[in-house]
Amino acid sequence: MTSDTPVTEKMARNGVTEASTSATSTAKTSRSSVLDPANFPQTLESPTIYISLVYDPLDIPAYLKFTRSAKAGANILFLGTTRDNFDHRPVSRLSYSAYPSLALKSLYAIAEDVQKKHGLEKVAIVHRMGEVKVEEESIAVAVSSGHRAAGWKGAEEILERVKARAEIWKKEWFADTGEMEEGVWRANRDRDAQGNILEKSNA
């Protein structure tokens, strides 16, 4: 999977290619320009790891195609979708923001670490930016492994670490306050794996 992002700089380091757009290569660029959808997708990848931030709907078949391996008997896919409620309040939509350059590096580091820990063949992590409507996917985590136990554990650990660490935040709009409401910023990690709320205050 190759990004269409206009590239001004490429660095090869330990088999990893990092593409930096003109919007992210200058400290003087405004945050709104950094998050301009025209500058996406932004990607970090190696032969066994694919990381991307996108504004478009997730291309799920492409991620599964990337992680497929002749050595893998298990292919695990997790899709995080926008639910219609939070803490008993109706949610109309979410919007995601990030520090792209930092988020990409954090996601890659997570993928690399968990890949080694669980012996995964390949890993793909893709997160959407901007508005994500109810029932639409905001994140895809795909992994392949020799056997299913490693795949299940690896995918779960990746997701938990992404939500806890990656420089990505979400803003919720509640249907009971109307569309004129500014929305509520939250940390990406608002619930644990069992659905228990971890963070109620604004992020």
Automatic annotation (TrEMBL):
Its EC number is 2.8.1.12. InterPro entries: MoaE_sf, MOCS2B_euk, Mopterin_biosynth_MoaE. Pfam families: MoaE (PF02391). SUPFAM superfamilies: Molybdopterin synthase subunit MoaE. Substrate binds at residues 147-148, 163, 170-172. GO terms for molecular function: molybdopterin synthase activity. It catalyses: 2 [molybdopterin-synthase sulfur-carrier protein]-C-terminal-Gly-aminoethanethioate + cyclic pyranopterin phosphate + H2O = molybdopterin + 2 [molybdopterin-synthase sulfur-carrier protein]-C-terminal Gly-Gly + 2 H(+). Keywords: Cytoplasm, Molybdenum cofactor biosynthesis, Transferase. Residues 17-33 have a biased composition (Low complexity). Heterotetramer; composed of 2 small (MOCS2A) and 2 large (MOCS2B) subunits. Catalytic subunit of the molybdopterin synthase complex, a complex that catalyzes the conversion of precursor Z into molybdopterin. Acts by mediating the incorporation of 2 sulfur atoms from thiocarboxylated MOCS2A into precursor Z to generate a dithiolene group. PANTHER family: MOLYBDOPTERIN SYNTHASE RELATED (PTHR23404). This is Molybdopterin synthase catalytic subunit. The lineage of its organism: Eukaryota, Fungi, Dikarya, Ascomycota, Pezizomycotina.
